[in-house]
Amino acid sequence: MTTILMGMALSGCSVGKFDALSAAKGGDDVTGSIATAQPAAVPSDTPTAADLAFARVAASDVLTKGSKDSSQPWENPSTGARGSVTPLASAYSAEGRTCRDFLASYVNGTSESWLHGAACRDQGGRWEIRTLKPWKQS
């Protein structure tokens, strides 16, 4: 038995009481060999630039289809954000171009919000997203 205790003392192993309260509060690791996990990122109700890029592509797609009362889903696999884009009204003319307004939903985790956008056809006939910003109810 003395040999075992002597071996433990010489090997650098520490034998001590595990303090659960200290560990729960983020105290020192018992052995120092296991890093504590970082808290997961909390989803935001503010879209990232990448999220907006996915929503813009969906808006362009749904406006190109031109069908009435249609929606186009979108999802950013990197952030988990998703939503859909729905044209709001008939096309109108602005600055000599054909334009349309649309509404996009934005869902990230349990957070939900809406974005309002406007797009106009460019000279090549493609839809150019002119604005896409948080929708404020009036």
Overall spatial form: globular
Q: What structural class is derived from the secondary structure elements?
A: alpha+beta
What characterizes the major β-sheet? 6 strands, antiparallel
Uncertain runs with pLDDT below 50, 5 residues or more?
1-30
Distance between the termini: 80 Å
Strand content range: 25-35%
Oligomerization status of the protein chains: single chain
Mean pLDDT: 77
- Based on DSSP secondary structure assignment, what is the total number of beta strands? 6
H/E series: HHHEEEEEE
Tally of DSSP helical segments: 3
Helical fraction equals: 10-25%
> How many whole angstroms does the radius of gyration measure?
28 Å
What labels describe this entry?
single chain, 138 residues, alpha+beta, 6-stranded antiparallel β-sheet, 32% strand, globular, disordered N terminus
Description:
The protein is built from 3 helices and 6 strands. It has helices at residues 2-11, 20-24, 49-65; strands at 72-75, 82-87, 92-94, 97-108, 111-121, 127-134. Strand 4 (97-108) and strand 5 form a beta hairpin.
SSE layout:
Blueprint lengths: L1 H10 L8 H5 L24 H17 L6 E4 L6 E6 L4 E3 L2 E12 L2 E11 L5 E8 L4
Antiparallel strand pairs: 1-2, 2-4, 3-4, 4-5, 5-6
What's the quick description here?
By secondary structure, this protein is α+β, with helices and mostly antiparallel strands.
